[in-house]
Amino acid sequence: MRAIQITSHKGPEGLKLVDLPEPQRAANEVLIEVRSAGVAFPELLQTRGLYQFSPPLPFVPGTEVAGVVIAAPEDSEFKPGDRVAALPMLQGFAEQVTATPNLVFPLPDEVDFAAAASFMFNYGTAYFALIERGKLKPGERVLVQGASGGVGSAAVQIAKVWGAAEVIAVTSTEEKGEAAVRAGADSYVLADGFKDRVLEKGKVDIVVDPVGGDRFTDSLRCLDVEGRILVIGFTAGEIPTVKVNRLLLNNLSVIGVSWGDYEELIPNHIKSQWNAMRPHLISGALKPLLGPSFPLEQAKDAVLALESREHTGKITLTV
């Protein structure tokens, strides 16, 4: 089968199309014919050996896929021919992949493969951040950094569906701000000098931050008393530091969000998130903001597009 391997830690240039044996399904695994694979920031970091989970070279990356079941355990809910989304957590940039049943999700007819491969990683992260870690309450105001990206746009929609009174997007360009509004944000402000424009409207209760970097301190300044900032990642490349007296003065909370690792602690946790979000996926209230799609053999171009940050929405590979 065709697959993409990371062959070096020289960046996206180290992504190579190779021919590999088809995966051998263990008795407790689902074998899936991949139709679409999501491209996420961890894959970019893995090409440089910078991600927290980086297997020995060469290896096939790819966390999130959608496709059709080839074979499944008899005691699972799946059978050959079923359309599914899945989180193999690795090996997804290939024509076939295996995943455990707790990380395979029956795909509603209303959702196509590209949207399905763009859903669970980003929306699961956003749901975990806002609903489980951030304890979002109806009527609260939410500020979302990087709101036109995969996690950011998912956070916009999760916040609205679960009752936020207002969602303000922070983006680097007008075009990305307009995309965030199309995804469901009430308004947007540009990242340069965002604090002053946000405070003109009043302080917020929650900041969703997958960006990090030099925005972090001003994000804290945007928080109302007992506000929470949800630390999801550092796409800006810099891990920020904070003077904790800022937290003390207004009873603020900095909350870490590590979604994928939590499944190891709480089995079937991600499946429960899927069940909570599935009705809203079917209704269209949760609808992934799709970016460009590349054929499998152009995986390098897809990851470079992610790195450039010139595109809005989730980038995918068509297999």
Detailed description of the structure:
This protein has about 325 residues and is of the alpha/beta class. The protein has eleven helices and 15 strands. The longest helix is centred in the last third of the chain and has 15 residues, at about 270-285.
Topology of this structure?
Layout (H helix, E strand, L loop, with lengths): L1 E5 L8 E5 L10 E10 L1 H6 L18 E7 L11 E4 L9 E4 L4 E3 L6 H4 L3 H14 L7 E5 L4 H12 L4 E6 L2 H10 L3 E4 L3 H8 L2 E6 L6 H6 L1 E9 L13 H5 L3 E4 L2 H7 L3 H15 L6 E6 L3 H10 L5 E5 L1
Parallel strand pairs: 8-9, 8-11, 9-10, 11-12, 12-13, 14-15
Antiparallel strand pairs: 1-2, 3-4, 3-6, 3-15, 4-5, 5-7
Helices and strands, in order, run as EEEHEEEEHHEHEHEHEHEHEHHEHE
The SS-based structural class is alpha/beta
Q: Report low-confidence residues grouped into runs of 5 or more.
A: none
Query: Which strand-content bin applies to the residues?
Result: 25-35%
